[in-house]
Every structure is written in C-alpha cells, then in structure tokens.
Amino acid sequence: AAGIFRGVYEYDFNMLYPTVYYVLQLDPLTIKRCGSGVEVRRLGVRICTSPGPVSEYLSNLYEARAETKKMKKELGEVGEAADQAVKILANSAYGVFAKTSIGNLVNEYVAAVIFWVAQDVFDRLWSRFRPLYGDTDSLYLRNNPGEDVVNSEARRAAAEVVGDNAVNPVEAFSLKLEGVWNLYIPEGDDGRPLLKNYVKWS
Questions:
Q1: How far is residue 201's CA from residue 42's CA, in Å, rounded to a whole number?
Q2: pLDDT of amino acid 103
Q3: pLDDT tens string 119-173
C-alpha cells in the first residue's frame, strides 16, 4: 500500500537463505532430480538431496552464525565484528551457487531450491498476514500478532513447502520483531506503490 503509516511492525527472518540450505542439507555433490522431492518452480522439476561435505560446511556456517548472534549481545564491538564476518560467509553461499564466474561450485538446482523455497515460505506468510510491505525476508504489519504467532505460521508454511524433505527441523525458520516504525511508501506514476523505495523512521 502507498501512503504514510504509523506504528508499523517490522518482522525479519533470521537467516532466511542459510536456514533453507540448513534445513534441507543442500549439497551440490549430492543433489539430483527425483519424483518426490522439493518442487522448484520455474524449473518445473523436483529435487532430492542428501547430506554431503559441502552441506556439512554450510551447516557449520549456520551454527556459527547462531553463536555469533549471541556474542553480539555479550561482547559488544568484538561480537559485532565476528557476527558480521560469519554473516557475510553464510549469506554469500547462495551467490556462490548462482554466480557463473565462480567455476565448479555453480549449481543451478541448489541456487533455485534456496531461492524458491524461501519465496514460497514468504508468499504463504504474505497471504496469511497481508502486510503493508514486504521485501525478501521482512514483513511490515499494521498490527502486531506477536512473535509466537508469526513464528508458528512461518514453521507451518515451511513444513508445507518442504514436506518430508527436511533433514533438520523446520523449527529453524524464525522471525524476530526488528522494530516499530513510521513508514512512508511512495506512489509511482501509475498509482501503484513503488517497490524497493520506502522510508522508515522511529
């Protein structure tokens, strides 16, 4: 919606893309097409995967990030620096699988599963909460349903999307209340809200 809105609740996913590769244990060395796996929209295929050396490394990154998030609170600037370093590594894994200049790690299926599973979970939350605005891994809500409700819906959505293909529990999917803001969403020449173009302030 376009306009100025006050008291908007911003919910952010905790590590959305890393959570997808952690829950499914995605690995370019073991991933394959199959008849009953995770559906990859746009590619029109289903994908199965099993843990391997790359997914083990990615899981280590995911778990390290969970630890550095705690360090941020306990160690101040040192913890902040450690968390930022691990965050960059954990998030850049998605780009590695999709970037053709990288070389042998490129895997269209891994990149597509990460993107489309995240998108499908997000779309289900969009339908459930009808936010004012949403952007990749955040929802801006008029009313605050509470973290328990939002996380319950996120895990339900994740279970619907990945089905029996999860290796690690879908409970890994979670969101946190990032803040309460005033939000301005401008309107384009066509009368529609502009995407990727907003201002928030407290």
A1: 37
A2: 63
A3: 999 999 999 999 999 887 999 999 999 999 999 999 999 999 999 999 999 999 9
Tokens of 142: 């008029």
Task: Say if residue 104's pLDDT is above 70.
Answer: no
Rounded CA gap, 173 and 186, in Å?
31
Tokens of 25: 């244990």
| Length of the chain measured in residues | 202
Judge contact between 91 and 18, C-beta under 8 A: yes
Confidence at residue 102, expressed as pLDDT on a 0 to 100 scale? 62
Assess contact for 126 and 140: CB atoms under 8 A.
no
Return the HEC string of 117-130.
Answer: HHHHHHHHHHHHHC
If one counts every other C-beta atom within 10 angstroms of the C-beta of residue 195, the result is 11
CB hemisphere CA count around 32 (13 angstroms): 7
- H-type helices in 43-183, by residue range? 53-75, 77-98, 108-129, 147-162
Lookup result for tokens 């409970």: 171
Core vs surface per residue 183-193: b (16+ CB within 10 A) or e: bebeeeeeeee
